[in-house]
TrEMBL record:
InterPro entries: CRAL-TRIO_dom, CRAL-TRIO_dom_sf. It holds the Pfam family CRAL_TRIO. One of its GO terms (molecular function) is phosphatidylinositol bisphosphate binding. GO terms for cellular component: membrane. Residues 55-163 form the CRAL-TRIO domain. This is Alpha-tocopherol transfer protein-like. It comes from the Eukaryota.
Amino acid sequence: MRFLRFKSEPRRAYETLVKYHDFRKSDKNFFSQMRPSAMKYLLDSKVITKLPGNDVKGRPVLLLNFKRWDQEVCSVEDIIRLIMLFFEEIMRTQGSFPISFKAVHQVNQSKTFWLVSKILFSFFSAKLKNRMHIHGTDRESLAAHIPLSSLPVDYGGTAEGDVDTAFIDEMYKNEQYYEALANFD
């Protein structure tokens, strides 16, 4: 049903469903670890979190804080797996798949990263360029997209924390769902 909600044309919904299924089957080992209990150490590290509030358009906001990433403890695959776990939970609770990125915001980036981003952005389509935002340390610019009440204090906001604990708790409560999803053929 979540594929039909995303694609209004049944044929395109079916094609998307088949691609998703093939993708899930392509690396069973990768997906077998994609459940909250197997990723607890990463969830606790807060490398990736879902903010307690939403953006100004009511959409969920994921925060990727790579300063917290210990590459000796978790791999790039672990990071990708965790991002996908967050996407699965957002889809499970909001009812459609696939999801699309409506905006990417970069904050506190180094000058080198800023320069590389600007160069890379020049190759993006106009649609994608409009979704990319580089804020640096400009909190007013960031607050125009994500309300201060949703942003953690470290990012100039007023939110008490940087984790939507209800969202994380809900993932843990649905461990059986993720177990079944991991074993789906």
